[in-house]
Amino acid sequence: MPSSPSRAAARRTSVRVRLAAGLALVGCLATAACGVPPDLETPRAATPPRPSPTPTTGAVPTSSPTPMATVTATPSGDGSTATDCAGRPSREQIIALLRRTNVLPRSARTTFRTGPLCAAGWQFSVIEVPDRDLLQVVSTGSPASLRLVTAGNDVCTIRVRVEAPAGIRTLACD
Q1: Model confidence over 24-53: pLDDT tens digits?
Q2: How far apart are the C-alpha atoms of 125 and 88, rounded to whole Å?
């Protein structure tokens, strides 16, 4: 008994949908491991490898997480280094920005681990929020009109890599 025209059309549509889904999956897999395009990578200065410590006794070396270093640098007008913002913007203004953009709830208690640090109109901060990962924050603008660029535990976004001054890019991406 021949199948009805509507069954045949439904079968063709089903095959097309499966084919399209398969092609989309192949496309995603093909580009998933591409990484950062070479023209967007920040050139890194060659650093000599650090020698690994060798114990002089029979003790097994232990490792513990190292806290993020506090960044201190000399001011530069070109944005090549990030320096203390000297209260412009203040920590309170950064927190207000995060609450205004719904990154932080109003009741969240916060402690600044780093910053805000400034370079050429951009700011970078690292904030501790209880029971959460460290929150990195990149913002731009004057203290009176701060705009959030990105916040999270990985703030090395395309915008940061392309637009941020070197001092902020180094903190956010390296």
Answers
A1: 655 555 555 455 444 444 444 444 445 444
A2: 13
Distance between CA atoms of residues 151 and 135, nearest Å: 7
| Cα 7 to Cα 2, 19, 20, 80, 89, distances in angstroms | 10, 18, 20, 66, 66
- The predicted pLDDT at position 69 comes to 40
Q: What mean pLDDT value characterizes the chain?
A: 76
DSSP 43: P
- Let me know if 113 is exposed, middle or buried by CB neighbors in 10 A (0-12, 13-18, 19+): middle
pTM for the full model?
Answer: 0.57
Contact between 137 and 98 under an 8 Å Cβ cutoff? The reply is yes
User: How many other C-beta atoms can be found within 10 angstroms of the C-beta atom of residue 152?
Assistant: 13
156-163, Cβ contacts within 8 angstroms, sequence gap of 24 or more = 158/40, 161/36, 161/40, 161/41, 161/42, 162/40
Peptide bond into 116 cis (omega under 30): yes
d(CA 151, CA 172): 10
Residue bearing the bigger pLDDT, 174 or 139:
139
